[in-house]
Design brief:
Elements lengths: L1 E7 L27 H8 L9 E6 L3 H7 L8 E4 L4 H16 L4 E6 L3 E2 L2 H18 L2 E6 L10 E11 L2 E10 L4 H10 L2 E11 H11 L1 H13 L5 H8 L8 H4 L7 E6 L3 E2 L19 E3 L2 E4 L5 E4 L4 E4 L4 E6 L2 E6 L6 H11 L6
Parallel strand pairs: 1-2, 1-4, 2-3, 6-10, 12-14, 13-15, 14-16
Antiparallel strand pairs: 4-9, 5-11, 6-9, 7-8, 7-9, 8-10, 16-17
């Protein structure tokens, strides 16, 4: 009954200039020589057979996605004609999984995270899936924090409900927005909050029921798409209906208002690699703390992120900056402002410089 859904429709604007419309973050080789999407797929191991893995991506990147995952059945790549956020993405995958298997239980994963201790990851996914298969509800996996991180949303733990093997299952009290550093430090010290990893488990029918209850307009559209899946009309109905679906996130649109919410605390190494500065967590730094990829050199410089897929990059006497060079663009930004790369992309779009987007 277990299916895996990989959400691979993101644009990855925080990773410009490497990330582009036709080569978004999940298709990049940021931490290793393997694209993040491929790493996510391989991380599943023998947990889920390949014919029960679903990848939701954009029409623009569907071909590249199939190239990265050639063993995936072609019909298991679901192409969004237009991005409508994660609620529609997960709903589309639930329709496909349910049509293939009325008893489908889904684990839902972002395509662009980096996770260590993969056997432990698979054990946690299996435990969460077994729990929701038996007891229903919507479950999210939360990572026990290791530092007062301000860049992540948090989950507030409720009381422990049961154990699934070695894994505890808690009621999820609420979702918490990204905190300031003082509040993040309190969360870390209290032990009552987890990082929101954006990884979920549910029965496909349960998710679709919650969508019907909370976002009826989305349910109506998904019903039409679901009926057409696997028929000659599938592509036409998807192209017609999907762009009109409500755009909302899973957390805000569904999870926060769900009737039965659970969370499983996990402790495997995890990073959402949310910006260039976060890449420093996943690359082995040199002796002066520089995270480097490509033809780069640092002289009397430390704590930098230096990446080049184009010209040689040299930095002298600077600390804690990000420098990224591609054959047609260069980015320079302080590490603590790396989240602002989205503003760069917006500015380029306003200037009409689409050739570098």
């Amino acid at each position: 009954m277990l299916h895996a859904v990989i959400m691979a429709g993101g644009s990855g604007t925080r990773f410009w200039p490497a990330s582009r419309r036709h080569l978004p973050k999940q298709l990049l080789t940021l931490a290793t020589e393997t694209p993040l999407l491929r790493m996510t797929f391989e991380r599943l191991g023998d947990l889920v057979p390949v014919d029960r893995v679903w990848v939701v991506t954009t029409a623009e990147t569907a071909e590249a996605t199939r190239n990265v995952l050639p063993e995936l059945p072609p019909e298991n790549t679901l192409s969004e004609p237009l991005g409508r956020n994660t609620a529609a993405c997960a709903g589309l995958a639930a329709c496909a999984a349910q049509k293939a298997d009325p008893e489908a239980v889904c684990i839902v994963l972002p395509a662009d995270h980096i996770i260590g201790e993969e056997a432990r990851f698979r054990a946690a996914m299996a435990a969460g899936a077994a729990f929701v298969s038996r007891e229903g509800g919507l479950l999210t996996f939360g990572v026990r924090p290791t530092r007062p991180e301000t860049g992540y949303g948090y989950l507030e733990l409720g009381p422990e409900h049961t154990h699934e093997g070695e894994w505890s299952v808690h009621r999820l009290r609420r979702f918490v927005e990204k905190p300031d550093v003082d509040r993040a430090r309190t969360y870390l010290e209290s032990g009552g909050h987890l990082w929101n990893a954006g990884i979920f488990a549910w029965r496909a029918t349960t998710l679709l029921e919650e969508i019907r209850r909370q976002i009826p307009d989305l349910a109506i559209g998904l019903d039409r798409i679901g009926e057409a899946l696997g028929t000659d009309e599938s592509d036409a109905v998807l192209s017609q209906v999907y762009p009109s679906l409500p755009s909302t996130s899973l957390d805000f649109g569904i999870m926060e208002g769900a009737e039965r919410l659970w969370t499983v605390p996990v402790d495997f190494p995890w990073s959402d690699v949310g910006s260039w500065s976060a890449l420093a967590e996943t690359l082995t730094p040199d002796a002066t703390g520089n995270a480097v990829r490509g033809r780069v050199q640092a002289i009397d410089a430390g704590g930098n992120v230096l990446v080049s897929t184009g010209p040689v990059v040299s930095v002298v006497g600077v600390d804690n900056v990000v420098v990224v060079a591609t054959p047609d663009a260069v980015l320079v930004v302080p590490k603590d402002q790396a989240q602002r790369v989205k503003e760069v992309v917006e500015g380029l779009r306003e200037k009409g410089w689409d050739d570098v987007l």
